């Protein structure tokens, strides 16, 4: 098995509401979804955001959409109107999650399902 960053396998989108962050993770096919469902757990997401997400992380699995939704509570230091953080929004959390590595034995794919080109960015 090879360790692969999520950015080579999936797509994500995130946003914020108050002091919570919502991250949606989408797989391009069933094989990738199965690997994500087995390895991208609420506990791993919370550990990945150690120091940023202080509350619980809840994972909702949507197999018919090959997607997962993570709700991260107490993640924005009080929310937009209360925090002193420079970036008080949750929009950057999806990009950050894409650096998480999982074990995957298939071919890395771009989100559209195409094999990754040897000329792609690292």
TrEMBL record:
<protein>
    <recommendedName>
        <fullName>AtuA-like ferredoxin-fold domain-containing protein</fullName>
    </recommendedName>
</protein>
<feature type="domain" description="AtuA-like ferredoxin-fold">
    <location>
        <begin position="4"/>
        <end position="102"/>
    </location>
</feature>
<dbReference type="InterPro" id="IPR056362">
    <property type="entry name" value="AtuA-like_ferredoxin_dom"/>
</dbReference>
<dbReference type="Pfam" id="PF23544">
    <property type="entry name" value="AtuA_ferredoxin"/>
</dbReference>
């Amino acid at each position: 098995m090879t360790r692969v960053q999520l950015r080579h396998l999936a797509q994500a989108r995130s946003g914020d509401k108050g002091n919570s962050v919502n991250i949606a993770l989408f797989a391009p096919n069933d094989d990738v979804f199965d690997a994500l469902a087995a390895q991208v757990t609420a506990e791993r997401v919370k550990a990945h955001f150690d120091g940023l997400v202080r509350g619980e992380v809840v994972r909702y699995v949507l197999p018919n959409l090959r997607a997962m939704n993570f709700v991260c509570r107490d993640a924005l230091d009080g929310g937009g109107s209360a925090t002193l953080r420079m970036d008080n929004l949750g929009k950057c959390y999806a990009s950050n999650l894409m650096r998480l590595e999982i074990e995957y034995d298939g071919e890395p794919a771009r989100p559209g399902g195409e094999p990754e080109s040897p000329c792609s960015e690292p």
